[in-house]
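Standup notes
- HV: blocked on the assembly model, inputs below
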Amino acid sequence: MTFVTFVNQFISGATYGLVLFMVALGLALIFGVMSIVNLAHPSLYMLGAFFGYFIWFSLKGYYLSFWLSVILAGLAVACAGIILEFFLRPLREHTEQILFTYAFIYIIADLVKMFWGGRYYTLPRPPGLDGSVTVGGIILPTYNLFIIGVSLLMAALLWLLLSKTKLGKIIRAAVFDREMVAMLGIRLPWLFALVFGIGAFVAGAAGLLAAPMGSIAVGMDAEMLVPVFVVCIIGGMGSFLGALIASLIIGEVYAFGILVLPQMAMAFMFVVVVVILIIRPQGILGRS
Amino acid sequence: MLLASVIVAVIIPHLLPRYYIHLLNLFLIGSLFALSFNILLGNTGLLSFGHAAYFGVGAYAAALLMKKVGLHYFIAIPLSMAITGVIAAIIGYFCSRVVAMSFAILTLAFGELLFVIASKWYTFTGGDDGIQSVYPPDIIASSAGFYYFTLIVVTLGSLAIWRILNSPFGYTLQCIRNNRQRSESIGINVRRYQWMVFIVAGVFAALAGCLFVTLNWSVAPPEIGFVKGGEPIVMTIVGGQYIFGGPIIGAAIFTFFQFFIGQITIYWALVIGIVLALVIRFLPGGIGGFIQQRMAASHQAQQSRV
């Protein structure tokens, strides 16, 4: 393998990994605060791609239409997430919650099929990011570098929100002691809806951001499901930094695995899962 | 009552058109599959999203043993169950290290791994095409013959599961479900039990898979995948996870609804999703649990009247 292929493969692995990371970010936030595993999170990612595509399509030709649709798609999916959280609210038991979000995988997939059909939609890269840059003689696609940047930016913003703002303090307090937070006059239902909304926003925005690198179709939720949750387990449920490390590992393993055994690139991922779980059953940065 | 149901079960293939016998077979296989799933969920409190893996591995193993090795069907079945048991033991070794949500996701991940192997390893598993023309022996090749065979196997399988759940082993599982830490502190090796129950559930799912091969005379990768893994979940939750017959009720509802709703709309998954969500929200014990509750209530009412 030449150095150039190595760098290219590395970048594409990092891009794939960081798209997973963006989806895992919302999951980690929701799990960390509410201890809910939202199995429908990849479905929200798909929903973001579809919403975003049709918003982009109706705004086509306007200045900054892509960026506007990313934000609008994120907001629309945030609303969907808040609705989901509303339905989830009466359920207390973990198994019930996880099964309930599982039911929404079916519901969202079929609703998408109903409204937009089983067709493929493709989206061009936004102007300014459709070219490539040359770094030290190696040609790299700008958009992939942009995805790497934007996902790290999202993580940084979320981290700032959680650690530096008042809202973040409240959210972190709710992780430790819900009753006490409620006693202090914070409306927990609103807080939970907001947290779910933020998580869904990130997933929805990620759906459209990742769309120009592939296509938008029914089934993109199922494609994300396993890798995203693998990232969550091996990173340690609820840990941001763990999810970042895990998503980079999974992305790179996938990108280089494809060079060795194209058909079985997925299988390498499981070797990593098995090895990590033998060493650390609770995940890289998980609390046992 | 029991005699009447036996008579009905015996004469039914002579009364119904052929397609309904097919549905009946699907229902029988589905109930065995869901019962094996419920060993994990209802009795041990472990939610597996990859249970179809063992159903599929059982089906594939039986088909491969018959096609490639040329074994007789009745020898292929126990062998395929043993093979699935070994695979379940390997996967279960890792899955028994984790609980609750990590368990759910890890089973899903391993299920997908087997799905990828089945759909991509063309030279061995036939890839996306699966394995076709797996002919059952003549004695069960006819529609009615296969129905009787399935009926007997599923009845025996269900009885075996019932026996296991009502043995000291089964009670230990319930103890683990109710309080894991306490079970550990009274000296139960929880991890080992979790591993064992994983294998047991996998072996019974494999039996259901073997029957499925002979029903369709073929097997393909979807039999292993995530969507198939959803079937026992829906059956068990809708039917009721806390009573033994719950998964059977769920299998009946699932199979016949799938057929009738499938004729009305293509959005079958939407209906299933909504039904599942409603049952979880309003009938946590499932339909079976609801009926049992009602019967207990009316029984009590009668007693208090006397």
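- HV (later): unblocked. The radius of gyration of chain A is 19 Å. Residues 15-222 of chain A form one domain.
- Next: hand off to the docking folks.
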